[in-house]
Structure formats: C-alpha cells, structure tokens
Specification:
By secondary structure, this protein is an all-alpha fold. The chain has helices at 32-40, 63-75, 86-94, 100-114, 118-126, 130-137, 142-155, 159-167, 170-180, 183-196, 200-208, 212-222, 225-238, 242-250, 253-262, 267-275, 279-287, 291-301, 304-320, 322-330, 333-340, 346-361, and strands at residues 21-23, 29-31, 60-61. It catalyses: S-ubiquitinyl-[E2 ubiquitin-conjugating enzyme]-L-cysteine + [acceptor protein]-L-lysine = [E2 ubiquitin-conjugating enzyme]-L-cysteine + N(6)-ubiquitinyl-[acceptor protein]-L-lysine.
Length: 366
C-alpha cells in the first residue's frame, strides 16, 4: 500500500514537501523559499495566524523536522523529489524586494528540477521565467550569476525553448558574461551558445551580434582550460553557418586556433576544419608558420575524430598550394598516410586516399 506523507511535512504556502523548513516567530513552520517570498512581497503577518510579525522576522531552521523528512525519504525514496511551486520561485527572481539569498535559493531549486525534467522546463518557460532568469544572469553577484547561467543552460536544452530564449535577449546577456564573468561563468556562457546554436536559425542570429564571435575568440586567448574548450566548441557550433566562418577569421581566430592545437587542444582542429572551407580561411592558415607541422602532428597523435578533421584540413590546403604539399612530405605525411590506409574507420580511409591523390597531382611524390 502507498504510504501517506505526514501533513506536517508540507509547507502551508506551497503545499509541497519542505526541503528547508524554518520557524517564524509565530511558531509555525514554512519552507524557507516560500516564506521568504511571502516576506519579500511585503507581508508582515503570519500566513496562518494573521498576527503581525517584526519588520525583519528571524527565520529559525527547524532541524528536527528537517531530520524527520530526511529520514522518511530514506525509507520512502519515491517521495524524495518534492516539486516546489514554480510561480513562487519565479516571482522571487523578478521581485525587486527579493534578497540575493532568496533568489539563490529559488535558482537552486529550479536548477535541480530542470536538469532532467523536460516537462518542468516547458512549464517554466510557459510561466514566463526567462526574463527573471536573464535578470539574474546580469547580476553583479558571481554566485547568483553562475546559478542563473546553469538554469538558463537547462532551459536551453529543449529545442522548443532555444529560439524563444534568443528572442528574449539571452545572447546579449551571455556575451557580457563571456567578457566580464568569472572563469566558471564564462565556461557556462560558452556552453549556452553551443546549446542555442543547435537550432539552425539561431546560428545566423548569434553570429550577427557584433561582439558574439569576437568574445568567443577573446576567450580562446584569455581563458583557462575549460573556458578555451567550451569557446572552441561554441565556435564550431556556429561556424557551420558559412557567414560566421568569415566573421571568425576576421576576428583573428585562425592563428589562435593553430596555436591552441599545437598546445594540445584538439577541439581546435574541428573549428579549423570548418574555416578551411572558405578561401579566407585557407589564406590565413597558409600565412601561419608551422601550420602544416601542427596538422601532421594531429594525424600522428590525434583521436579518430581529430585525425578525420586533420586529414580534411590538410587536404584542402595542399589542394591550393604546392608549397604546402612539399612541407607535408617533409613532415612525414606519406608514411603516416600509408598506416592510415589500414584504418577501420571508413571516413579516415577515404580522407587519406584523397590527401595522397592531392599530393600525387601536385607532383609532391611519385
């Protein structure tokens, strides 16, 4: 038989199981996020007794009740995921009187429930959560900004939300974070760009923002490991749209990507594999001393995916430039290609064959 939840476990305001029960001076217990929303809305009476409260009522943690709830969920794990009232949580994000702690608590709840629940994500967007989330993304408080970015990323996981979030102004907010946020915030912001760019129409929209691609290229220069990787991934996502390739090249992405590739960031070869498709990209790569050496190193030491992009990029360059063919030969590319001909990966074998044919046509070897 299904076990009934004790009524005392539910918050009198939200009617949901309490995750952080606190006691008002009136002696009644509420979930912290719900009673804080009540107070931030200007109420100075107890929701149950209607008796007046102090101007700044003290909220005392109800450790005993919290322990009971925790113990009960251990015995009855199916009851572990109480879902707070989303309207209350959203209201706390948009209310001017909400404290940072209240907003942070609300965002924590929302992040937890949107991570794996697409239905909850849709419900939030239908309730108009985006403006409140984006307002918190623009906060000067690093903790609040990071949690809001995590929620924005969760909301962007659903394709139905992607265009709407861009229309709400998400890109402007994210670009500012790429420039001025903490390292963790910048990494999440770049990941959001990648997520939003899954929808084809967003690729063009993102690239059209004057500072979007420039901010990602800047992050390739100034960021740490995770930031660089996420920035490169975002560039790869938006540069499948041809106009964005030229924008990335104009921002100086090519020499930076080659340098990062030489330093071990293999994700850079994927972006170069897109930029090499346009004339401007090939011309920029030809200007970089040691470009061929770096690409041949990818063929020698890279992952299967890296080798595919390395072969494609090198072939595009060698097709246009006889000098690069001889550079590739001098770097030992023929011996590497002979070994790659035996690869199980059909695409690697095909790209290898194309590169060998290009070298022959340019008379680089017999």
């Amino acid at each position: 038989m299904e076990t009934q939840l004790p009524d005392d476990f539910s918050c009198p305001i939200s009617l949901e199981i309490m995750s952080d029960p606190v006691i008002l001076p009136s002696g009644h217990t509420f979930d912290r996020v719900s009673i804080q929303w009540w107070l931030d809305s200007g109420h100075r009476t107890c929701p149950i007794t209607k008796l007046p409260l102090p101007e700044h009522p003290c909220l005392i943690p109800n450790h005993a009740l919290r322990s009971l709830i925790s113990n009960y969920t251990l015995v009855s794990p199916s009851k572990l995921q109480p879902c707070p009232q989303p309207q209350i949580l959203i209201s706390s994000l948009t209310s001017q009187s909400s404290h940072v702690g209240t907003k942070l608590n609300s965002l924590t709840h929302l992040v937890r429930f949107t991570k794996h629940d697409s239905g909850f994500r849709r419900k939030l967007t239908e309730l108009g959560a985006a403006p409140g989330v984006l307002k918190c993304v623009g906060s000067d408080d690093p903790s609040l900004q990071e949690k809001a970015l995590s929620l924005l990323l969760n909301l962007s996981l659903d394709d139905d939300n992607k265009v709407g979030l861009v229309a709400e102004g998400a890109i402007n907010r994210v670009i500012k974070v790429l420039r001025f946020g903490s390292p963790d915030c910048r990494a999440i912001a770049a990941t959001i760009i990648t997520s939003l760019a899954v929808v084809e129409v967003n690729k063009a929209t993102i690239g059209a923002y004057p500072d979007a691609i420039q901010a990602l290229v800047w992050l390739l220069i100034s960021g740490k490991g995770r930031e660089k990787k996420e920035a490169a991934t975002a560039l790869y996502a938006i540069c499948s749209f041809a106009d964005n390739r030229r924008r990335a090249i104009d921002c100086g992405a090519v020499p930076i990507l080659i340098s990062l590739l030489d330093s071990g960031l293999e994700r850079a070869i994927e972006v170069l594999g897109l930029l090499v498709k346009c004339k401007e990209g090939r011309e920029e790569m030809m200007k970089v001393n040691g470009c061929v050496k770096v690409l041949v190193s990818v063929l020698r030491n890279g992952s299967s995916r890296g080798v595919q992009y390395g072969l494609f990029t090198l072939n595009c360059l060698c097709t246009c430039c006889e000098r690069l063919c001889f550079e590739a030969i001098n770097e030992g590319v023929v011996e590497i290609c002979m070994g790659l001909m035996e690869e199980e990966n059909e695409k690697i074998r095909r790209y290898t064959s194309s590169l060998v044919q290009t070298l022959r046509e340019n008379h680089a070897f017999g």
